[in-house]
Amino acid sequence: MAGLPGTGKSTLARALAERTSGRVLSKDEIRHAIFLPEEIEYSSRQDDFCVRVMLETAGYLLMRDRGRVIFLDGRPFSRRYQIENVISAAASLGQPWRILECVCSDATARRRLAADAEGGAHVAGNRDYQLYLEVKSRFEAITHPKTVIDTDAPIAGCTEEALRALC
């Protein structure tokens, strides 16, 4: 799952996991399970570490059930090396991969991020519209095959579009 903060990656990942009997692994949830609040720094270094834990967990789960679908969530994958690391991990496990890039309007992302912050709906304490703009300003285009999902559309349609891409 790729895309800027607030573009619906987590919502879509959960919907897809439900439809595929898959599993969502969330970088943000892993970070909060490993680190105490005072140790959380939202740095690239800590993000990379949490993604390595995600990939190790994905590998473990896939060794137990080769047909399982794993959705990696919680990272925008705004840098090429981040996607390359996941593709390499999938190759080492002999697993296919798909990139689903979630996009939406700036207004929708702003509204979602504000609602999440207000309701405490997301574990990452740094998610706000300023982060969205910062990540957007340095987002490196994804050059690998991908499916772009416009999450301004209703979730049911987004889920169906993403399921077609997974086949």
Written account of the structure:
α1 (9-20) crosses α7 (155-166) and α2 (27-34) crosses α3. The chain has 167 residues and is mainly alpha-helical. It is globular and about 40 Å long. Strands 1-2 form a two-stranded parallel ribbon. A two-stranded parallel ribbon has the order 3-4. The chain has one domain (9-166): Rossmann fold, CATH 3.40.50.300. The model has no long low-confidence stretch (mean pLDDT 95). The longest helix is centred in the first third of the chain and has 21 residues, at 44-64. It has helices at 9-20, 27-34, 44-64, 80-92, 106-119, 129-138, 155-166; strands at residues 23-26, 70-73, 100-103, 147-150. 54% of the residues lie in helices and 10% in strands. The chain contains seven helices and four strands. The two termini are 16 Å apart.
